[in-house]
Design goal:
The structure is a homodimer.
Chain A (H helix, E strand, L loop, with lengths): L6 E5 L3 H13 L4 E5 L3 H9 L5 E3 L2 H5 L4 E4 L6 H8 L8 E4 L5 H11 L6 E2 L1 E3 L20 E4 L7 H13 L3 E4 L2 H27 L4 H6 L3 H7 L6 H10 L1 H23 L3 H19 L2
Parallel strand pairs in A: 1-2, 1-4, 2-3, 4-5, 5-6, 8-9
Antiparallel strand pairs in A: 7-8
Amino acid sequence: MTEKVQTVCIIGTGLIGGSLALALKKSGFCRRIVGAGRTEATLKKAVELGVVDHYETDFALAVKDADIVVVAVPLSAMKNVFEQIAPALSATAVVTDAGSAKQSVISDAQVAFGKTSNRFVAGHPISGTEKSGVTAAFTELYENRKVILTPTNGTDGEAVQLVTEMWQAAGAEVETMDAEHHDMVLAGTSHLPHILAFGLVDCLNSLEDVDEIFRFAAGGFRDFTRIASSDPVMWRDICLSNREDILVMMKKYQAQLQMISSALEDSDADALVEIFSRAKKARDQFNNQ
Amino acid sequence: MTEKVQTVCIIGTGLIGGSLALALKKSGFCRRIVGAGRTEATLKKAVELGVVDHYETDFALAVKDADIVVVAVPLSAMKNVFEQIAPALSATAVVTDAGSAKQSVISDAQVAFGKTSNRFVAGHPISGTEKSGVTAAFTELYENRKVILTPTNGTDGEAVQLVTEMWQAAGAEVETMDAEHHDMVLAGTSHLPHILAFGLVDCLNSLEDVDEIFRFAAGGFRDFTRIASSDPVMWRDICLSNREDILVMMKKYQAQLQMISSALEDSDADALVEIFSRAKKARDQFNNQ
């Protein structure tokens, strides 16, 4: 394992940051992990659970000796955290994040870091569960999962390499792509499905005999709506940060539903089979990947 | 176990009929299970796998000695099967089905069975997987799952009792309700989610870089769209059989999505958190049931 990394600082020791800390500890990627966050009780818990070695509530103190800083906070908090750490970073420190939308984070980083934003590498681990918090963290969260890095033209190549090695040490497969492309792809495969699941549960919840309705729900419903148990504030942030791409996807989906609605209105059996068959074929292929 | 049941005939030995056969065999509910269907190869396979004891491709022959006939065929085939078996049923035979919509099946039964439709008990096991066919059948499918029976005012009480005992022998919890109510509840908890999942996969599948999109899909997407691997013809039938209730639910859902779209258009953070929080609360309660 690389010898160059002494200290990793993880700001935000929830499911995402905490699981990364556990995986890095296990792999021996660095000598020391410093946790930082706003809530001292959470940080104490993180030390107690062996997730981090040490904690700081002052972000500037936390990042002072860090070779890598991972900012794993809600998207709405990114800019503020970047601004707090910018003056305290060492000249060689590399900063990365774990947010679900990338263009907004890159723009926040450019404002906060200015000239040194070439050592900021935007990243997104494609994993997580509907749970949150340090107690939900586990070492294997990133094993064989994808992490997408979205460096810009100005991003330092060595910084990208270091962040890549960090995620590989945590067990992940790392790929790079444009931030614009990332945001569009994730709007379709993650952001839209979460909105649809939240929407379905809220819709059924507004019906009169809601207890009956949930009582007779089966496994399909359970799986379909699992992601509606996700953190509402985190998802508000994702929606606002990737608003335009999500709106594009929502419009496409609303048109799709209108197409199915019309087929059903017209009792158009062939149209229904055609749509369902295309979907099944695509989903079966995805399953076999 | 009751001594009154000698022979159960199961028409349609796919996932639903085949799993029932396996569970009834294991429980000793009856002496003999006759399988029937259109495709001899499937029936041979069912005998080979030990799912049924004997098979017939002629439905009238199949039901001749049956105490209970379970019709587990697609909704669009119900009426035709009912008409074929009606003249061949013994005077005491009880008929039930396993269709996902109940008003349409009751109406088919009333036409086909006429005066003897009082011994038809409409039923729906709330279970299944996205897989189909006799090779997908397994003994435990109904264990601790709900089965809803929707007898009408005219349905014979003893017939309801016998069908209840059969499903209990297969491990299920049996409840009764009005067919109208069943169809509305299932439109919301099962039929609508399936349509939404088929719709999402078809929508993403129509995008240009579809390979990329599926490649970066994570666990949430996988669970959300699992039901889009379901049988397209079966779901066409369900849509057409429960068309009106599904259309009511789709309209409600489309209004819900429009509400979320508008909140997003307006960058209305509070509205988004409110919707997502209500959904999370309802979904968490369902999880704890």
